[in-house]
Amino acid sequence: MPMKGRGTAEYRVIDRWDGGVGWLAYPDEKMQRASHALVGDDGGLWVFDPVDAPGLDELLAEYGEVSGVVVGLDRHVRDAGKLANRHDVPVYVADWMSGVAGDVDAPVERFGRTLADSGFEAFTVVDSSLPPWQEVGFYHEASGTLLVPEALGTASYFCAPGERLGVHPMLRPLPPRRALRGYDPERVLVGHGAGVTENAATALRGALEDARKNLPSAYKKAFQKMLS
């Protein structure tokens, strides 16, 4: 099983509901890079951190016309420019994030505490120089949808034994509790792995509270997964 898939992708749908859909472009890769398209209050479709795949446009068309493509992490440019150009829309980048716009081969729009007219609140998850990390999260109050691009994940190397949702291994010593503890979501969507749609608020609290306590077992499991 490769760490990151290459070549022709065959996506698998995850996280599907009336308000959006998620997919894994390379379902067999270890990284489990997840992408999402969510319907905003404006009726448009907002695509987050996409990895492209053949036939993807047909999936997106089920949910409406694409209003914009969003980069939520400084190293999640992925196929944002490619998808934005295909749909003739901008790539949206938080106004405080640096070093991202230059990596996107498409027109860029900046946003602040709300993502244009989508109804998604945008908030800083991590803004750090050591480790170098800039991440913006999104919350849609009407649907109870919380999207965290990297700080949280469900891929096996994120989670200690018994966890449904885990803090990124690099952030476990100092989990982003202040940024995330105020949310009580119905679903948590992540950039690596399928989302959490049952008892999501409980899973979120557990991930943040137990990040340090479960650090040894999480690191052991992640190390074993990377070697397998």
Automatic annotation (TrEMBL):
<protein>
    <recommendedName>
        <fullName>Metallo-beta-lactamase superfamily protein</fullName>
    </recommendedName>
</protein>
<dbReference type="InterPro" id="IPR036866">
    <property type="entry name" value="RibonucZ/Hydroxyglut_hydro"/>
</dbReference>
